[in-house]
């Protein structure tokens, strides 16, 4: 944490805004309290390098935004640092103005509780209340051990499992209209999107669907906690990532046979996709919702949504547009092979051909494998065993390339 002088005109203006928000008979100090941002200013920026500097700045902005959003209601610091710097420990009732890295005031907080706890005894509830990343105790220990180790090195101490941690809880007393937290919110959304991809690879692709679903629920909770409104700078980005999270949930729920819940989630997904203002997000959600309707027995409405998705994918020629359109054709092939649509094996073969035309140049091997699998099923239904075997071999090659 780095303090900033309260004579800064931005802080003075912020404090006057706070005083103006109070009742006329309120007893409030005229002088602003301490003002600080999360993360320490590096003493030797040139040694840290540009990347480390950017990481520190990003972390400071993100943590400040978490406080404003109400997701972060606690913070931890190393007691040894207070002693080394001759600073008093925080105490209940202390006021602080939280800043972003640039020194802009974000909110006013009041300390409500201070406890001195050995590092290895900090509990899961406190880690959750710190609001960072996935809010787990495991993550808290990993991140804070790294941070406290750097602080120990700076003051000539060795980090230890029982090193004393000052665990502080606080409440937000005042937020100015439109606080400058967009950089922090943007970073949070980007981080959640990256964690979505990690959960997909770590859990869902490993067929650990229970943990995948739990991870997607947690990401949804973090996105909704941002409480963004239409028209705000990051609202559409939030809705775009939310739609992707809900799509993963719906896919797993369908696999679990929970069709009613999957349909409920898909409706929310489609709403988020429309609010995102992003054609690709909308197209993907139309596919997801159409598939949910079809597998629930509402075939005709489902096919209408799929056709709307096809049109949306066809409006662009980017990698993602072509990939999405390729997977659309895979779904149509699967539906034909399952006799959900009336075209049967010939329709499935044509749909699979369309998918391969799009996906093979992209080297999208999961899609290529699925398309050849659909061709094999269609050829087998037609009694063409030579073509069936050829399609199976091509499927195997695609799956091997996917694993390599």
SSE topology:
Layout: E1 2-4, H1 9-21, E2 34-37, H2 45-68, E3 74-78, H3 79-85, E4 95-99, E5 105-118, H4 124-130, H5 137-155, E6 164-174, H6 182-204, H7 209-224, H8 235-255, H9 259-276, H10 279-295, H11 299-314, H12 319-337, H13 344-359, H14 365-381, H15 385-403
Parallel strand pairs: 2-4
Antiparallel strand pairs: 1-2, 3-6, 4-5, 5-6
Helix pairs in contact: 2-6, 4-5, 6-7, 6-8, 7-8, 8-9, 8-10, 9-10, 10-11, 10-12, 11-12, 12-13, 12-14, 13-14, 14-15
Describe this structure in words.
- The protein has helices spanning 9-21, 45-68, 79-85, 124-130, 137-155, 182-204, 209-224, 235-255, 259-276, 279-295, 299-314, 319-337, 344-359, 365-381, 385-403, and strands at 2-4, 34-37, 74-78, 95-99, 105-118, 164-174.
- The protein is α+β, with helices and mostly antiparallel strands.
- It has two domains: 2-174, Sulfate adenylyltransferase; 182-403, Tetratricopeptide repeat domain (Serine Threonine Protein Phosphatase 5, Tetratricopeptide repeat), CATH 1.25.40.
- Strands 1-2-4-5-6-3 form a six-stranded mixed sheet.
CATH class type of the largest domain = Mainly Alpha
Overall pLDDT metric: 90
Query: What's the number of helices?
Result: 15
In one word, what is the shape?
A: elongated
Output the helix-strand order: EHEHEHEEHHEHHHHHHHHHH
**Cα gyration radius (Å):** 27 Å
Q: What topology, given as strand order, has the largest sheet?
A: 1-2-4-5-6-3
* Percentage of residues in strands: 5-15%
* Sheet with the most strands, sense and barrel status: 6 strands, mixed
Low-confidence parts lasting 5 or more residues at pLDDT below 50? none
Secondary-structure arrangement, i.e. CATH architecture of the largest domain = Alpha Horseshoe
Number of separate domains = 2
Total beta-strand segments: 6
- CATH superfamily membership of the largest domain: Tetratricopeptide repeat domain
What is the rounded distance between the termini?
A: 46 Å
CATH topology of the largest domain: Serine Threonine Protein Phosphatase 5, Tetratricopeptide repeat
Class per helix and strand makeup: alpha+beta
Estimate the helix proportion, in percent.
Answer: 55-70%
């Amino acid at each position: 944490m780095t303090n900033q002088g309260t004579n800064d005109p931005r802080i003075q203006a912020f404090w006057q805004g706070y005083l103006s928000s109070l009742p006329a008979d309120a007893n409030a100090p005229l002088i602003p309290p301490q003002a600080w941002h999360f993360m320490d200013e590096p003493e030797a920026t040139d040694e840290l390098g540009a990347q480390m500097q950017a990481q520190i700045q990003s972390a400071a902005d993100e943590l400040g935004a978490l406080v404003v959003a109400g997701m972060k209601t606690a913070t931890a610091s190393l007691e040894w640092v207070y002693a080394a710097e001759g600073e008093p420990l925080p105490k209940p009732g202390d006021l602080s103005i939280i800043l972003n890295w640039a020194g802009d005031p974000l909110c006013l907080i009041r300390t409500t509780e201070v406890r001195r706890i050995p590092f290895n005894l900090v509990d899961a509830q406190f880690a959750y209340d710190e609001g960072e990343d996935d809010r787990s105790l495991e993550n808290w220990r990993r991140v804070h051990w790294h941070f406290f180790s750097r602080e120990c090195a700076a003051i000539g101490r060795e980090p230890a499992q029982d090193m004393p941690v000052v665990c502080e809880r606080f409440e937000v007393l005042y937020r100015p209209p439109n606080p400058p937290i967009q950089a922090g919110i943007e970073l949070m959304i980007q981080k959640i999107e990256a964690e979505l991809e990690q959960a997909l690879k770590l859990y869902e692709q490993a067929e650990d669907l229970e943990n995948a679903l739990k991870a997607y629920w947690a990401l949804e909770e973090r996105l909704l906690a941002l409480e963004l409104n239409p028209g705000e700078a990051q609202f559409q980005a939030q809705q775009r990532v939310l739609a992707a999270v809900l799509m993963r949930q719906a896919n797993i729920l369908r696999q679990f046979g929970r069709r009613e819940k999957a349909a409920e989630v898909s409706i929310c997904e489609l709403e988020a996709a429309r609010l995102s203002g992003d054609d690709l997000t909308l197209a993907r959600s139309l596919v997801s919702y159409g598939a949910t309707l079809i597998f629930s027995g509402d075939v005709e409405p489902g096919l209408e949504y799929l056709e709307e998705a096809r049109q949306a994918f066809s409006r662009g020629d980017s990698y993602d547009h072509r990939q999405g359109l390729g997977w659309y054709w895979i779904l149509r092939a699967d539906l034909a092979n399952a006799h959900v649509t009336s075209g049967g094996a010939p329709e499935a073969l044509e749909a699979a051909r369309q998918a391969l035309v799009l996906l093979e140049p992209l080297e999208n091997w999961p899609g290529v494998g699925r398309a050849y699998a659909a061709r094999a099923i269609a050829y087998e239904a037609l009694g063409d065993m030579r073509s069936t075997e050829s399609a199976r071999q091509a499927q195997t090659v695609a799956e091997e390339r996917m694993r390599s």
